[in-house]
Design goal:
heterodimer; A: about 325 residues; alpha/beta; Rossmann fold; Alpha-Beta Plaits; six-stranded mixed beta sheet; four-stranded antiparallel beta sheet; about 35% helix; B: about 280 residues; mainly alpha; about 5% strand
Chain lengths: ~325, ~280
């Protein structure tokens, strides 16, 4: 990972409508593609809007691309791109006029802006529709248009707020492909906010997990991928009352990490040699049958759930977070 | 860029062409009246007695400004509501403000077309008329009546401010072009009715301070150094009589106009928060 942080959070708190939305966030983000994860209402969009300068911190501060977020530093803003979550456009303009306007507002000269607008629209898959008025675009086309306007001026950092919202599977795949291509191009860093774990896992190399306005975790996803811990997903049957608990206690005494999974299944950390014989022998001692034993590796969902469980605010409760679209 | 966009949004309107044409015709009529004063041949040809011609004085230019101001008001109704309400209704403000563009630059960019067109129908033609009169009259007329030129300029600026700023604030508030237009018409008509009720009910002229149209009349009379009306018509025991009044000082009108403009600017500023009213 590069040494200079893209985003530095220094005790950043944001209060809106008398309520503290972000609570003293601190940390550094270095990734080429940073995933901003969290259940709905965790504060992801508020963080993005604060980093863009739409909200002022109530205390603390942050730096984006090395520059503090307070005030309207035009040089900093010229290097940022923003794709909003909600439906937004300037009516009465064609796609190319809209994207050109945004390029010019970012400081490109008129001719260069027009050229880049065409390029960005082709890149976003709107080449054929670029002369149509933007209000006639479908949801997928509007998402692509929002992406095109965010990247038209060649920003160093792009904030993508729920870019796959409302897209059908094919359009979602296209959008993720575009975002990956942007990341692989290496010119533009990106911050992808999503409640879809799969989207973040496909694109990002670093994640910031927010939970109830607090940082639950900052993880280098690449390092996590390389050192993912293996575990067994175990389904038990049989045994006298209390045998299951006794067996689990025995495993814990042996230093094994044990946890519950949905559907009555268990999550048991794999030993270094990966052998399950000891596990079977121990189950036999407690008259338990191991009906199913499936080797697994930690995925983003596991990382996310662990971070949320460990967060001081408690369990995620009813917030929506999805591993799939 | 924003000025270009605003111009694009209004340029195709037939109403705009009609209003600009009406403003040009009005100017032409006043220019002809000035010309007639100095063209003895034309006066003889038309068999007009010189003493019957309208005098070219502060009242003449005051009347011209009154006509142009009415056209300017219609221009504001046509131009300003779409400029702001389109962006706000379609949640486009964050696009602008996430770029190196300040809120002040956004407002100025959006209002520049309106203020240019308003200037083109108020103080610019007014000063051209003044120049025409000064040129034809010669012998230091322009220097002696410099106050009229100043009144034309400042009076126009006051009018542009008191119609454009509330129009922008109301458009940003309502976020809908039609509601903004209706609210703007109401903003000029309704306080006038209340002002009349206050004036008659309390037998005072101070009710005029709540009516934008009365305010601007008082301010203009002050600027053109025309006497403020000392009587006003009223019904007394079923008969129309003229009631003597102490006119409202022009200074009070200037103060209220500035206060209205400041309040409008504050409302506009507040309504232009990038994420206000954004629906996810």
């Amino acid at each position: 990972m590069p040494s200079d942080p893209i985003i530095q959070l220094n005790g950043l708190s944001v209060r809106l409508g008398g309520r503290e939305i972000l609570h003293s966030l601190s940390g550094e983000l270095h990734g080429a593609a940073i995933g901003l994860l969290g259940p709905n209402g965790a504060g992801k969009s508020t963080l993005i809007h604060t980093l863009l300068g739409f909200f002022s911190p109530s205390s603390g501060g942050a730096r984006v691309l090395g520059a503090p977020i307070g005030g309207r530093d035009k040089t900093r803003l010229a290097h940022l791109g923003y794709m909003p979550e909600y439906d937004a456009y300037v009516p009465g303009l064609s796609g190319v006029e809209f994207v050109r306007l945004m390029a010019e507002l970012s400081g490109l000269p008129a001719e260069a802006a027009l050229e880049r607008a065409h390029e960005a629209l082709f890149h976003a898959g709107l080449g054929e529709a670029r002369y149509r008025r933007v209000e006639t675009y479908s949801t997928g086309m509007k998402q692509a248009l929002k992406l095109a306007q965010a990247i038209v001026h060649g920003p160093r950092l792009v904030f993508l707020d729920e870019p796959t919202n409302g897209l059908d599977p094919a359009a979602r795949r296209r959008m993720l492909h575009l975002i990956r291509a942007m990341r692989d191009g290496g010119q533009t860093r990106l911050v992808l906010s999503s409640h879809l774990l799969h989207d973040v896992e496909e694109v990002c190399d670093e994640i910031l997990i927010l939970h109830r306005g607090r940082i639950a975790a900052i993880r280098d996803l690449e390092a996590e991928r390389q050192s993912r811990r293996g575990y067994w997903q175990v389904q038990l049957a049989g045994g006298a009352p209390g045998a299951r608990e006794a067996w689990l206690d025995e495993l814990r005494r042996q230093g094994r990490e044990v946890g519950d999974l949905p559907g009555g299944r268990l999550r048991i950390a794999m030993p270094a040699d990966g052998s399950a014989l000891e596990l079977y022998a121990l189950a036999q001692r407690y008259s338990l049958q191991i009906r199913r034993l499936e080797p697994k590796r930690d995925d983003l969902e596991a990382i996310f759930l662990r971070a949320i469980e460990a967060a001081p605010a408690g369990a995620p409760g009813s917030e929506a977070i999805s591993a799939h679209s | 860029m924003l000025a270009r966009l605003s111009w694009r949004q209004v340029r195709s309107s037939r109403l705009l062409i009609m209003l600009l044409s009406a403003a040009a015709i009005s100017w032409l009529v006043f220019a002809i009246l000035i010309y007639l004063h100095f063209n003895t041949g034309a006066i003889a040809l038309l068999q007009i007695a010189v003493n019957h011609l309208i005098p070219i004085n502060a009242g003449f230019f005051h009347t011209f400004l009154g006509i142009q101001a009415m056209l300017a008001f219609f221009l504001v109704l046509l131009i300003i509501p779409p400029v702001f309400s389109r962006d706000l209704a379609h949640q486009a403000l964050p696009y602008y403000l996430s770029r190196p563009l300040s809120k002040l630059e956004y407002v100025c960019g959006k209002l520049i077309v309106a203020t240019t067109l308003l200037s083109a129908v108020t103080w610019l033609p007014g000063l051209l008329l003044f120049g025409l009169q000064a040129g034809l009259a010669g012998s230091g007329w322009g220097a002696r009546h410099g106050r009229i030129a100043l009144a034309l300029f400042l009076g126009s600026l006051l009018w542009i401010a008191i119609i454009a700023l509330p129009a922008a604030a109301i458009s940003a508030w309502t976020r809908r072009r039609l509601s903004a237009t209706a609210a703007l018409i109401g903003w000029f008509l309704v306080p006038g009715i209340f002002a009349g009720i206050v004036n008659r009910g309390l037998t005072t002229p101070w009710g005029d301070l709540i009516s934008p149209s009365s305010l601007i009349k008082i301010a203009w009379r002050g600027l053109f150094q025309l006497p403020q009306p000392a009587v006003r018509p009223m019904f007394y025991r079923g008969r129309m009589v003229m009631q003597a009044i102490h006119p409202v000082p022009a200074g009070s009108a200037y103060f209220v106009i500035v206060a209205i403009c400041a309040l409008s600017a504050a409302i506009l500023w507040r309504r232009l928060e990038p994420l206000r009213g954004v629906r996810g």
